[in-house]
Design brief:
Number of strands: 5
Strand order of the largest sheet: 1-2-3-5-4
Mean pLDDT: 90
Largest sheet: 5 strands, antiparallel
Distance between the termini: 19 Å
Order of helices and strands: EHHEEHEE
Strand content: 25-35%
């Protein structure tokens, strides 16, 4: 399989995480990814990335999904150069990076158009 990519601009409001989850689920399904547990985990990662970008980022939020065979990478870019970090949970948040680490094969941050892009490689789906 060649590399498949989808690029989406995400609205900057409270609807952004849900819109991003629905879009990524539709894209991954159309690419042949159907394991429901894996799709749920991918949705959680997307939701956390987009929520963090809307809440702490700035400028436009860009979402990209890439798939090559069983490797899927989700990335979210925003206008802030502040690198996300793990923090202690409180009543408002602080669980996002821990969730991303638990549900992924790894994550990284890179400079992107004056801001940053957070890239997350999802764990491979379980194949029967």
């Amino acid at each position: 399989m060649s590399v498949l990519t989808a690029h989406l601009d995400v609205p900057l409001d409270h609807r952004a995480p849900g819109a991003a989850r629905r879009a990524v689920t539709a894209v991954l399904s159309s690419w042949g990814f159907h394991d429901p547990d894996w799709m749920d985990e991918a949705s959680v990662v997307v939701s956390e990335l987009v929520t963090n970008a809307v809440r702490h980022g700035g400028g436009c939020v860009e979402l990209q999904v890439e798939a090559h065979e069983m490797t899927v990478v989700v990335s979210v870019a925003d206008g802030s150069s502040v690198v996300p970090r793990r923090r202690d949970p409180d009543g408002v948040g602080g669980r996002g990076i821990a969730l991303i680490e638990a549900l992924s094969a790894g994550w990284s941050v890179e400079n992107y158009k004056g801001g940053k892009r957070v890239r997350v490689e999802l764990k491979p789906p379980v194949t029967p």
